[in-house]
Amino acid sequence: MRRLLHLLCLLLCCAPFVLDLSGCQAPPEAKAKEPCTVSQDSCGPPEACDLPPASLLDAGSIAVGAARDDAAIDGATIPSAEAGATPGGESIVSKPTTVSITFDDTFIDQMKVKDALRAAGLRATFYVNSARIGEDTYMTEAMLHALEADGHEIAGHTVNHPNLPTVDPDEQRRQICNDRFTLLRMGFRVTSLAYPHGAYSPVTQEIAAACGYNSARSVGSLGCDGCPGGESMAPRDPFAIRTPVSIKCNTTLDAMKNQVLAAERGSGGWVPIVLHHVCNRCGRNSVPPATLIEFFGWLAARAARGTVVRTVHEIIGGDVKPGVPGPPAPLREVQRGNILRNPGFEEDADGDGTPDCWLKGGDGANTFTFGRVPDAHTGSFAERLEVTAFTSGARRILTRQDLGFCAPLAQAGHRYALAAWYKSTTAPRFSVYYREPSGFWKYWTQSRLLPVCGAWCEARWTIPEALPADADSISVSLTLDSVGAITMDDFTLVDTSE
Ligand SMILES: [Zn+2]
Predict the structure, then answer these.
(1) What are the pLDDT digits (tens) for 391-407?
(2) How many independent structural domains does the chain possess?
(3) How far does the centroid of ligand 1 lie from the alpha carbon of residue 105, in Å?
(4) Which residue, of 240, 325, 419, 464, is most buried by count of CB atoms within 10 Å of its CB?
């Protein structure tokens, strides 16, 4: 019954935030080489971060898409507690409240507030994707050690940020266990996990516990209509820790304070604040450093009123359990011939409309639709992508970038040939990516533009370079970076060195 109520709450009031996919059209993917001003987790072009006029903010507008959920804790509808007393002099009683400051995704811009955290005497929890450590725009191992030396908690966020319930259990084990295993090997005391996109299933929760975690944080289910302001201090489910909505680029300072005040004025409890980028309007999930630093000062001062800040580990407690590596990637019998899984889009086991082992990807300012269509070259299905307006970026359909359930094993130094059938009203191109041993997916290279093709055409391209020395898998795609439509089918990726 409790689970049912919880589910109902998610569906009715927090659904867009449980997965934190509001505005996201595509899961993360390695970037093509176009200049990257928006992170893969930002889920929106920079213009999504232009703040509405001040008059709208004054009226209590919060984050994009969050107005309804946050209305109940809107600054305009709650009497100010800043003074600690009502005009009549009567003290406002705050319920005991504990706040955790949590940062996701390993972004290097989070280092901008390291000194401010120390100055305010606050310790935070940093949820880290091990494959990203040391990569461009992400924190280095030395930075993470410096954070830990300041008393912050280094926690896990999977190897490379998949939407966990959408991948098979063994891939979930690799993603959750290997991330923790790597972080432990680096010397971090890793006891806390955050699910990428806040997304989990009962299977994910079991795997998180089996990998040695003591807790796992979701996103959402606090502060919305019918939801409490704070999580219980002994969480209702330590593998589904609830939070207010993620801080977004147009979340005001008052709205951030209200995430805390909603608990203080309700039944108290635990408020894990969810942060991503720390920068001025660099993505939808960003907060300006100045705003965050002001929030830290306000929060630190609330210790006098009994509201304290603790890391997630400090609240959950428990030992640092031994690391457990995930299962090895399946060794494919067929490493000759076509090494792609589901190359003709025929399988969609979970019926979600995205063929198994494929991703709908891309970034930038453009309007687009994806669809699985019966207009196939062979079999019953093909994939169609249409870009109806284009300013920047690209859209693509690409093979899933994971740790081995979908991604084929490939050999450094070997050469690979790629082919696909397509028909299009504009010129597409092949883009390819490779995986490093850490699990990080990197843009590799792309073909020249392929011809516009009215009937079914086969494009063949031998990737001009051998697979780099540090690579062990390949992801392939057909990409549009102009207005038009493409229907694609029957991909082939062959190791030509075999
Ligand atoms: Zn994340």
Answers:
(1) 999 999 999 999 998 99
(2) 2
(3) 5
(4) 240
